[in-house]
């Protein structure tokens, strides 16, 4: 609904494509100023330009979350532009497909750095201002892999489960009347990241057989619940783990 997020500023990490793009777009359509974060400058700039062409408020924010100083630099730029976020969506992640006996040091380091370390840094940088204002929303994009991991996702699933634990910890301990922390756990969503995997012979049929609804999800399927969590109607939802997976976790 237009105007649901009027006056709000939403920072969505990894927002140049996939689920992040769908959520940032829905927020902008609801009246928020969408901060399109990505390490891909061309993609983030193009996304923000497209939204502004539609008469929506959006700005690109370029940063590599693998760098420990990135969140502080992001905050400084947003403060200078007068766009401090009161909504933070943690969507950027690294997903390496390796079995438990073949996980490389590089894969472990990359997934830990983005999925866990960057999460902590972003929370440390942006949540204090929400607490000071007395209002804010934090959403982490988890994964169905937390509940039903594949053999090739053992480490990725572990990092996502750890991220969820962090968010639930904050949901319980921040104790601010209007600062909520929730998790959206997508299932098999047809994003660019998943297309190559699903294109493997027989893979899509195998996945569809496990989904009670019998179809793959769309990135937009995650945007509506994100909007609810950040709207006035969702203000009493805190510490929720919301699956958007067509029943795949069952």
Mind explaining what this structure looks like?
The chain is an alpha/beta fold and 250 residues long. The protein has a single domain, classed as Rossmann fold. The chain is built from eight helices and seven strands; from the N terminus they run E-H-E-H-E-H-E-H-E-H-E-H-H-H-E. Strands 3-2-1-4-5-6-7 form a seven-stranded parallel sheet, with helices on both faces. Helix 1 links the parallel strand 1 (9-12) and strand 2 (33-38). Helix 4 packs parallel to helix 5 (154-173). It is globular, with a radius of gyration of 17 Å.
Give the secondary structure arrangement, pairings included.
Blueprint lengths: L8 E4 L5 H12 L3 E6 L2 H13 L4 E5 L7 H11 L6 E4 L14 H29 L2 E6 L12 H20 L5 E8 L5 H7 L4 H8 L9 H11 L10 E4 L6
Parallel strand pairs: 1-2, 1-4, 2-3, 4-5, 5-6, 6-7
Helix pairs in contact: 1-8, 4-5
Features:
single chain; 250 residues; alpha/beta; EC 1.1.1.-; NAD(P)-bd_dom_sf; SDR_fam; SDR
């Amino acid at each position: 609904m237009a105007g649901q997020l009027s006056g709000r500023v939403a920072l969505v990490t990894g927002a140049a494509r996939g689920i992040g793009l769908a959520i940032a777009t829905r927020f902008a359509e609801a009246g928020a100023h969408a901060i399109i974060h990505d390490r891909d400058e061309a993609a983030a700039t193009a996304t923000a330009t497209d939204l502004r062409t539609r008469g929506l408020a959006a700005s690109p924010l370029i940063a590599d979350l693998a760098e420990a100083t990135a969140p502080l630099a992001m905050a400084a730029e947003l403060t200078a532009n007068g766009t401090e976020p009161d909504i933070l969506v943690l969507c950027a992640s690294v997903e390496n497909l390796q079995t438990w006996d073949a996980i490389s040091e590089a894969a472990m380091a990359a997934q830990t750095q983005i999925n866990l370390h960057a999460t902590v840094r972003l929370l440390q940088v942006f949540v204090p201002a929400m607490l000071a204002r007395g209002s804010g929303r934090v959403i982490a994009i988890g994964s169905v892999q937390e509940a039903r991991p594949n053999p090739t996702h053992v480490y990725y699933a572990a990092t996502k489960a750890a991220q969820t634990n962090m968010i639930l910890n904050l949901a319980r301990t921040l104790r601010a009347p209007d600062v909520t922390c929730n998790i959206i756990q997508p299932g098999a969503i047809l994003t660019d990241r998943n297309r190559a995997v699903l294109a493997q012979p027989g893979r899509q049929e195998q996945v569809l057989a496990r989904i009670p609804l019998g179809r793959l999800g769309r990135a937009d399927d995650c945007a509506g619940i994100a909007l609810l969590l950040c709207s006035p109607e969702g203000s009493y939802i805190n510490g929720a783990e919301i699956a958007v997976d067509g029943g795949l976790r069952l």
